[in-house]
Write the structure tokens for this entry.
Amino acid sequence: MMGKSPQVAPKLFYHGLSLESRIPHDHTLRKIKRLIDFNFIRSQVEHLYGVNGHVSLDPAVILKLMFISIYYNIKSERALMEQLPLRLDWLWFCGYDLDDQTPDHSVLSKARRRWGQEAFSEFFAIVLGQCINAGLVDGTTVHVDSSMIDANASMDSLKPQLRLVGQKLYKDLDEQTRQIEDEKSNDGDNQGILESRVSTTDPDARLGKKCGHATLGYKDHRVIDDKCGIVTATITTPANVHDAHVFVEAIETHQCNTDTQVAAAVADKGYGTTANYKYLKEHDAHACIPHQRYGVAEPGKFSNDKFTYDKQQDCFICPAGQKLTRFCRKDEHAGNSYRADRAVCEQCAFLSRCVSSSTKGRQVQRADGACYVEWADSCVSGSLRKYFLGRRKYKAEGSFADAANNHGFKRARWRGLVAMMIQNLMIAAIQNLRKLMRSLSNHPATEAINLSISTDIVSEFASKMLHKNIFAIICERILTF
């Protein structure tokens, strides 16, 4: 006999109902709650609150709500608060009961502005410390890449920027002119550093260009460890900052966060500048970074790379074996020029493929610091370079794709550079946490040992370690206990 849905009036009181019993034991939020102690935030922001007046919401609850909004890709804090009473798992995770009053969405925005970037940097460091403790970070081979983020502002909000008159005007123009020259020397595509318009909605956002697409917004520069794809450093800048200018800061931030010396850095040709090659060579690190090729000849003509530089004689050797000697010194940024005698070139069999119709012989220019470019081209073999650049596609680019698909990475939630730093730190920490949970689910014994170590103790202990080997040995002993 077919049954009917019972028409029962709603109960005023429910006996025996417990949120704890309603949440499955293998629920994701249970794993997160076991791994991360969100109470650390209280000591981080305690100095920002007074001793009198209205009692604020628990900072640990505020951080959990912010965590949920990004983990589940909730578009706004207002939408989060609308869905919070409907989700039993969210209520349980934040410590609320069914009949508790949930906070207003403005509580989160006020707390975020009050806390600043430092509190969220600590959260990122704690999660990264857990990943290091679980053996997910090697730290010696890293991938550096960046991605554009659309600002929470329209292109129509761009207005002419008012400039001050007087001496400051000339000083700013001189400085920006030098930046443009540096930009052109590092990348043939002008990134538009000299901004003539600024957004009235988000003044910190800037116009940037990448892959032929102009964006009003920001850039997230990441360092991703090669072993498991853990994000070890994230730096947020306006969209008009060139990638190459952030490379050294990104590497040093990674080394500070992991207490590990980089042995090899992998990146695309946007990072292939003389300054970056010089930094890696001076710090005993290999460079797997291609660079822009200049001096490309017309079809059928010899390009500059067909000429071999002889360091001892300070000259170039052409394909026919003739010498091109240095004939003049240009300005300090242009490098040296080398030229062959016109009479010698006219007797060469390669004249039509090498020399133009001018009255001078073949010329080749060698920039200052070219030795670092030559070192970068030869420090790793061709097969190894191809291998690392292939891994970069799914380690670095895959990290950004995962952030965009699951955590709303490509669109700014809030406005301002500090708010974008907070967003990128939270997204990177959540991505690392997901990898950590996936790793621990495959090794349950490691999870049991890892849970016995308080996250704040690990963070404090790691910050006091001066040598990477000591910390690695102790962690290895703990994990194999």
User: Anything to note?
Assistant: Residues 84 and 90 are 6 Å apart (CA to CA).
